[in-house]
Amino acid sequence: MRDHRGELTGRVAVVTGGSRGIGRALVLALSAAGADVVVAGKSETEDPRLPGTIYSVTAEVRSLGGRALAVKTDVRKEAEVERLIQRTVAEFGRADIVISNAGALWWERVIDTPPKRYDLIWQVNVRAAYLAAYYALPHMVRQGWGHLLTNSPSITTTASPGKAAYMTTKMGMSRLMVGIAAEHEHDNIAANALWPAAPIDTAATRNWGRDKMGEPAQWRRPEIYVDAALEILTSEPRTCTGRMVTDEEILTERGWSADDLDSYWVTGQPPLEPLWIDGRAV
C-alpha cells in the first residue's frame, strides 16, 4: 500500500527462515526498499511439500537488481548463528536489521508435547532469537542504528489451550524484545515483536491442516505481514521500539483503512466465520 523504495538504501538486513513463505516475502520487500539482504535457512534443496531454498530466493533478489547473500544456517546451533552475522558483516560491512522469522510450529496440548519436541520449539523460537540478537547487537551499537524484529505475539495471560507449550516460546521471544528495547533505548536500536492477527497463507499453514488452521478463506496473504514489518523497519529505531503489535494494529496506526485490510484476505473479502486464535476472533 505504501511505496518504501529507496528508504533502506545502505542498510543490510538478515532474515532467518528466508527461503519461503513470510521469510521470502520479507526478503523481496526489503530488497525492493533498497536493503542488501542475507537469506538464512536450512533449505538448500527443493522439497515438494515446502518449495523454495535459500539459493532460489537469493537468485530472485539478484534477478531484480538487488544484492543478496545466501547463508545456510541452523538457528539451533550457536556457531552457525555467529557465523551468519560474521558473514553478513564481512560481505556487506554492517548488520542493520535482523528478523527472527524462522520458527517451529507445534499446536498440541502439553500432554501431547514430548520433551524432545519442546526442546526443539524452544531452540528454534526463543533461543534462536536470543542468539541472533546476541551476535548482532555489538555491530548495531557501534553503528548507532539497528532493528531487531521477531515473529511473536503480545504477552498475555490467555490460557491458549492446545498451544500452551508453543506459546511459552513465542511469548518468550516477545519478552526478549521488550527487554532489549529497554536495555538499548539510548543506542538507537529498536526491538519489536510483530504477530499476524489472522493465519497467513503459507506452505506451513496449509501443511498443518484445517483442523488447526481453518480454511483458506480465513487466511490472509503474506503481504499484510510484510507491509506491517516495513512500517516498523523503515522507522528511525528510537521512534518505534519496545512494541508488541499485530499486523492489523500497526497498519491501522499508519493509516490503513478497514477496506485496505480486507484486501489482504486470500479471497479478497473477510471470512464469514472468523477463526478464533488465543481467545479472540480475527
How is this structure best summarized?
This protein has helices spanning 21-32, 54-63, 78-92, 115-143, 164-183, 203-208, 210-213, 223-233, 247-253, 258-262; strands at 12-16, 36-41, 68-72, 97-100, 146-151, 189-195, 244-246, 276-277, 280-281. It is α/β, with parallel strands linked by helices.
Write the layout of secondary structure elements.
Layout: E1 12-16, H1 21-32, E2 36-41, H2 54-63, E3 68-72, H3 78-92, E4 97-100, H4 115-143, E5 146-151, H5 164-183, E6 189-195, H6 203-208, H7 210-213, H8 223-233, E7 244-246, H9 247-253, H10 258-262, E8 276-277, E9 280-281
Structure explained in plain terms:
The protein has about 280 residues and is of the alpha/beta class. The protein has a single domain (about 10-280), classed as 3-Layer(aba) Sandwich (Rossmann fold), CATH 3.40.50. Helices cover about 40% and strands about 15% of the residues. It has ten helices and nine strands. It has helices spanning about 20-30, 55-65, 80-90, 115-145, 165-185, 205-210, 210-215, 225-235, 245-255, 260; strands spanning about 10-15, 35-40, 70, 95-100, 145-150, 190-195, 245, 275, 280. The strands form two sheets. It has a seven-stranded parallel beta sheet, with helices on both faces. It has a two-stranded antiparallel sheet with strand order 8-9. Helix 5 links the parallel strand 5 and strand 6 (about 190-195). Helix 3 (about 80-90) packs parallel to helix 4, helix 4 runs parallel beside helix 5 and helix 8 crosses helix 9. The longest helix is centred in the middle third of the chain and has 29 residues, at about 115-145. The chain is globular. The model is unreliable at about 280 (pLDDT under 50).
